[in-house]
Amino acid sequence: MPVELEERVDRLGIVLEQFITQTTAQMAEVNAALLHMERNTERLERKTDRNIERLDASIERIDRTAERIDNTVKRMEQAAEKDRREHNTRWGDLANKMGTLVEDIIGPSLRRMAREELNCGEFESFTMRVERVHPVSKQQREFDAVAVGREAVIVNETKSTPRLDYAKEFVEFVKSGEFFEYFPEYKGRTVLPVFSSLHIPSNITEYLTKQKVYVVAMGDDAMQVVNLKELQPQKE
User: By residue range, what is the domain housing residue 222?
Assistant: First the structure.
């Protein structure tokens, strides 16, 4: 083999060996990089899994907390509803007690007024909280007080908190003549309507006076018929 050819072959071998060496080194670097990437990927996956687990745990804790809050709110709502019902019941009981208390205060005064001021004639009976059933409609009605004299019958409506609409309802009942449907035994006697309370505003008193209804309320010292002079003018 010529010398020149041998030299070329030698150089080619050297270049090939260098190429192989370089390629091998590069492959090693690539493999190392791939291994590093694989390890990083594994670490990232593990970290992601841990984050997901922590996130799931956090969501579970939030769900439990939300459930506890929801249960607490429900218990509070139930307690508030119970308190509201008990409050309304107590107020209703108090209102009923106040109503009967006012009736009990006014009752004895009505007995005196029937004899001394309202000209009912010889006194026959006095009844408080009388319940009667209408013979036709079967409607039950309670009368706060009924005072019976030979000449007239007092029908009394007592309100612990008087209002104008209460007064109007009473006037309508009196004018309807229904009283004798509940008390047919008193037909032919004069009915003296009385609207009473511990205090009655002036506008209600004025309205009832125009409707010929006696108004009974607390005076300076005792219960009195506040519009007696207007409905029974004094004789000169």
Answer: 108-231
For residue 159, give the 3-state DSSP assignment.
coil
In the beta sheet, which residues pair with residue 159? none
Instruction: Tell me the CATH number at 227.
Output: 3.40.1350.10
Is 71 inside any structural domain? no
The pTM score is 0.58
Q: Which residues pair with 132 in a beta bridge?
A: 141
Domain membership flag for residue 85: no
Map residue 121 onto helix, strand or coil. Answer: coil
CB 219 within 8 A of CB 117: no
The string of pLDDT tens digits covering residues 54-107 is: 877 878 788 787 777 778 767 766 765 654 554 333 433 333 444 466 777 887
Closest CA to 194 of 74, 136, 107, 125: 107
Given a contact cutoff of 8 angstroms between Cβ atoms, the answer to whether 117 and 228 are in contact is yes
| CA 7 from centre of chain | 110
Number of domains in the chain: 1
In a domain, 179, yes or no: yes
State which residues of the chain have pLDDT below 50.
Answer: 83, 86-99, 235-236
Task: Tell me 153's DSSP state.
Answer: E
Per the CB < 8 A criterion, the answer to whether 208 and 215 are in contact is yes
Distance of CA 230 to the CA centre of its chain: 45
